[in-house]
Amino acid sequence: IPKESIIDVYGCVKKSPVLIEGCQPDTVEVHAERVYIVSAALPTLPLQIEDAMRPEDDETALSRVNQDTRLDNRCIDLRTPVNQAIYRVEAGVVRFFMDYLTKANFVNIHTPKMISAASEGGANVFKVSYFSGSAYLAQSPQLYKQMAIAADFGRVFTVGAVFRAEDSNTHRHLTEFVGLDLEMAFKNHYHEVVDLIADMFVNMFKGLQRDQSRLFSAVAEEFGLNDAGFSSCMMVQMYSNSYDFYMRGEEIMSGAQRIHDPVLLTERALHHGVEIEKIKAYIDAFRYGCPPHAGGGIGLERVTMLFLGLDNIRKTSMFPRDPKRLTP
């Protein structure tokens, strides 16, 4: 029977006389009586699971699998214990993000991914044909989050795909990733938003440590895993009303207080060469009264990478997209 085949085994479960290496539980075994092949794998696999499981710092002469081979054969690579752990931790990041904000009276909204104009200044967007005209893949849900605030929702968040046409072949950039975005009206100062975001991150990371610590051992075994710890925010008063959050020395979130004055917003759009007619509905949303508000966006794959202390964002993107990869 080829390795990785799916089988049904009928037999008697008995206590093993010795501990079974690599199995959980490791004290029992099945004395097979009948074996049925449900789905047979090819006799020769493009990579072996045991090779893909070897730690990156393994200096033995045994075979190791490079990153491109892993990504080209992703469905096999994802079967390793470390990948099973990584994507369960990543699912936990989304769950804690959504749970915290839902309890804080945020509303989960869903925003368009095809838009008529670039959503963040006009550069680095994917242009696509749209019937007789053109459209762009959204760099950010920011415009629609702000319009939701103007529509009196007060606090909103959204989880969805974000597209960046950046020719960046680095360890931390993707051309498509999952964005965890939030927007919030405030009463007195934008620091109300900063404080909420900081508390959300602490709640998220402590929740992952509490609920999913058993998954960390698989990651630590292959890549090593060090606790990054927590530190308080450093507030500087003399600069713009914007903020960044960092983990292990790299940015995991950026945000700012938004412009809610339609006159100033129009002026800034013209300054950056944005066609006003294409964002008219967005600007008009602020002509009918809109509270001061701020928000920001998190890249799911990047925050998972840094939380687990990994060295490449492609390890936390199930099917990554970058300037050189569009498959599988």
Key features of this structure:
328 residues, alpha+beta, BirA Bifunctional Protein, domain 2, 3 domains, six-stranded mixed beta sheet, three-stranded antiparallel beta sheet, 10 helices, elongated
Could you describe the 3D structure shown?
- By secondary structure, the protein is an alpha+beta fold.
- It has 3 domains: 44 residues, no CATH class; 33 residues, no CATH class; 235 residues, Bira Bifunctional Protein, Domain 2 (BirA Bifunctional Protein, domain 2, 2-Layer Sandwich).
- The chain is 31% helix and 23% strand.
- The protein has 10 helices and 11 strands.
- A 6-stranded mixed β-sheet has the order 3-7-8-11-10-9, sandwiched between helices.
- β9 and β10 form a beta hairpin.
- The chain is elongated and about 80 Å long.
- It starts with 5 loop residues before the first strand and ends in a 21-residue tail after the last helix.
- CA-based gyration radius: 24 Å
Proportion in helices: 25-40%
CATH level-four homologous superfamily name of the largest domain? Bira Bifunctional Protein, Domain 2
Which runs of at least 5 residues are low in confidence (pLDDT < 50)? Answer: none
In this structure, how is the largest beta sheet organized? 6 strands, mixed
* Helix-strand sequence: EEHHHHEEEEHEEHHEEHHEH
Q: Based on CA inertia axes, which overall geometry fits?
A: elongated
- Which CATH C-level class of the largest domain is it? Alpha Beta
